[in-house]
Amino acid sequence: MATGTLISLALYFITMLAIGLYAYRKSTSDMQEYMLGGRNLSPKVTALSAGASDMSGWMLMGVPGAMYVSGFSSAWIAIGLTIGAYLNYVFVAPRLRVYTEKAKNAITIPDFFENRFNDTSRTLRVVSSVVIIVFFTLYTSSGVVAGGKLFESSFNTSYELGLYITAGVVVAYTLFGGFLAVSMTDFVQGCIMFISLVLVPVVVMMELGGFGETVAVLQTQNENLTNLMVDAASNQALGAMAIISLMAWGLGYFGQPHIIVRFMAIRHVREMKVARRIGMSWMIVSLIGSMATGLFGLAYAVKTGSFDGDPETIFIFLSQILFHPLIAGFLLAAILAAIMSTISSQLLVTSSSLTGDIYHAFLRKEASQKELVLMGRISVAIVALVAIYLAYDRDSTILTLVSNAWAGFGAAFGPIILFSLFWKRMTRMAAIAGMLVGAITVLFWIYAPVTIGGQSLSAWMYEIVPGFLACSLTIVVVSLLSNEPDAELQATFDAVDAELREHL
């Protein structure tokens, strides 16, 4: 590898570790600081942290690969995600920020569920914590695998060394710096991703002679590549069910713990509008850049005949072939940034559940804040070690399970978050039943030996759709069949309404 590329990557790693050290000195004195940054994030850090932790490696590899293979029809996923993220900012973000503080200062999602419904049985906390711990450990493993493969394919290292480098740097700044380190590194990583996803497609387009020439090359290859309504891979028109399934990815936002926890940490609900504008601007430009990278990369490959590799590596190929080694290192750091930002968020959310929802709630109720922060750090290390162990088998079926984690979280948590924030009549039993029904429906939809028109249920419709609907219906029915929530819970709901009216 060129010296310039190594220098860029070294500077990136040093920056991440320096941010972790800064955060360690600033905000790790108690659990609220370690897990939520003391609820003191600025709007810009909140916005880019939420975006970077959301987008992961799929932004720089998955989306370009899909566009490369299927053409512009893959944009339906981006459209659905954009709509879902915007609605998440409008409906969930401000209300969750106020409600978690009013509900006995909840600092984790399971904590909020328990306080919101006054669940003295602790069933909600246990069930939601188990879901988070299991799925996010697998999710983290997927990110570590991606890092290992990136180092192996791009830097000529062993796969195992790539695992340890990726996980080691993330664990270092997450373990010591906590939520503030994760959020600040996410901000820097989000900036790197943004610049890279603007720079690469623009340079490719210039190499090909401009936008018109680039589109002409694509249409010469296959006129359906630029058609939103036709899958260029099969040259088949997209039906209504296919479009619904692609756009349904947006439903997942309401239930992703590593994203919505950012909303709980902003320093004041009044600043949520600023965060929304920054976050949505970042997301829209980044998604357009990501899609353009795939399409323009295909045009470059067709015109030059210089690429015949995995479509998901087109960003890596373009970075190495078109840029000076120093810039190429920066662009490869963007992929690492996407991977690491998500791993760090998932590590911290899993750690918070292990520490606050299991250790403190059931094992050491009298634990001091210092002990809980120490346990949080130990939990980060434990989850990372398990993730590395699972990642050693690069062909493990874990990756298949992780590909459905978005749907699992979206269906199990999404409706509960929405109803708990906006419907005073919702009950504890409805939350428990809805969570179980949503998760079970997703698993049934994926694994049941049932077909429709010769297709599996999951191929016929993305599993988040039936899971989300089943969970929502269960919440409504069980709530109406249960006794109304007590006066204290209703008073807290009204207090949230009053504060939001005052500030928004």
From TrEMBL:
Q: Sorted alphabetically, which CDD domains does this protein's record hold? A: SLC5sbd_PutP (cd11475)
User: Reaction(s) catalyzed by this protein?
Assistant: L-proline(in) + Na(+)(in) = L-proline(out) + Na(+)(out)
Q: What Pfam families does UniProt report for this protein, alphabetically?
A: SSF (PF00474)
Subcellular locations according to the entry: Cell inner membrane; Cell membrane
Q: How does it sit in the membrane?
A: Multi-pass membrane protein
Does the entry feature the keyword Thylakoid, yes or no?
A: no
Tell me which UniProt keywords the record has, alphabetically: Amino-acid transport, Cell inner membrane, Cell membrane, Ion transport, Membrane, Sodium, Sodium transport, Symport, Transmembrane, Transmembrane helix, Transport
Transmembrane portions of the chain? 6-24, 45-69, 75-92, 123-141, 161-182, 194-218, 238-261, 282-302, 314-339, 372-392, 398-423, 430-448, 460-481
Q: Which domain of life is it from?
A: Bacteria
Q: Supply the InterPro entries for this chain.
A: Na/Glc_symporter_sf (IPR038377), Na/Pro_symporter (IPR011851), Na/solute_symporter (IPR001734), Sodium:Solute_Symporter (IPR050277)
**Which PROSITE patterns does the annotation name?**
NA_SOLUT_SYMP_3 (PS50283)
Stated role: Catalyzes the sodium-dependent uptake of extracellular L-proline.
**Listed name of the protein:** Sodium/proline symporter
Q: To which species is this protein native? A: Fluctibacter halophilus
